[in-house]
Amino acid sequence: MPPTQDVVSDTIAAITARLAARHDGMAVLRAVTDACGTLLSADATGVLIADPRGGVEVIAASDEPTRFVERLQAELREGPCLACIDDNTEVAVPDPDTERERWPRFADAMTEAGFRSMYAHPLRLMNRAVGGLNIFYTTRTDLPPTARRLAQALADLAVLGLTQERDQRRVERLAEQTLTTLNDRTHLGHAVGVVASTLGVTPDVARAMFVAASTQGGRSIRDLANAITSGALAPADLHDTSRTGRG
């Protein structure tokens, strides 16, 4: 069932509020991936970004199976998102079986991970594709044109979350920022592991706690990760902060 206009408006407003408040890019990306589930009924979402070394990197994934499929695209240089970036256009894969000749290894991996449909939408800066927002479904899904336009709007918001600058160096600075983001993600991964093991929760739950604590407490995810790994913030305190403001 398509989302109501109120749900669409509220979800987009929440993302743009993060942009206006200049939340760090990871928080905005998480809001966008969550919105794909809310507005497009996506079962999983991932984001790939072109890096300065000529490859692509996974900078967001909603769960571990998605992260595996996204990493495979990056490593094999094969799959819908790579085509999306190369051609600067949406790539629809409603059925991976129809793409086995084009992307044999990726199609097999996508099926083995439990996904039956995928849509890749370009992240554009200055009319150039610098990454892709990938939306996955565990059942055969044919997205209507209105849903695809909404997916592209979310992709546009995602790239704004990575860079809000307006000068001519935005593309280059996004590439530079991608390397910083990758380092931050490595550090965050360590902090997530600390929280998950200490509190006895899954890594996905621990990541969600960082996002919630950042939103509720007004601190960047990077700062929270640094505080956890340095011992300045206890995992239990992160949990308490992430619950602040919830009903």
Structure description:
There is one protein chain. Helices cover 58% and strands 14% of the residues. The protein is an alpha+beta fold and 247 residues long. It has two domains: 5-164, 2-Layer Sandwich (Beta-Lactamase), CATH 3.30.450.40; 182-243, no CATH class. Strand 1 (44-50) and strand 2 (56-61) form a beta hairpin. Helix 8 packs across helix 10 (235-243). The chain is globular, with a radius of gyration of 18 Å.
**Under the CATH scheme, which architecture of the largest domain would be assigned?**
2-Layer Sandwich
Q: How many strands, what sense, and barrel or not for the largest sheet?
A: 5 strands, antiparallel
Oligomer: single chain
- Total strands: the figure is 5
Spatially, the strands of the biggest sheet line up as 2-1-5-4-3
Radius of gyration: 18 Å
CATH topology of the largest domain: Beta-Lactamase
Number of domains: 2
Secondary structure: helix percent: 55-70%
Class of secondary structure makeup? alpha+beta
The CATH class of the largest domain is identified as Alpha Beta
End-to-end span in angstroms? 27 Å
The CATH superfamily of the largest domain is known as GAF domain
- Determine the number of helices (DSSP H or I, runs of at least 4 residues): 10
Protein name: Transcriptional regulator with GAF, ATPase, and Fis domain
GO molecular function: RNA binding
InterPro entries: ANTAR (IPR005561), GAF (IPR003018), GAF-like_dom_sf (IPR029016), GAF_ANTAR (IPR012074)
Pfam families: ANTAR (PF03861), GAF_2 (PF13185)
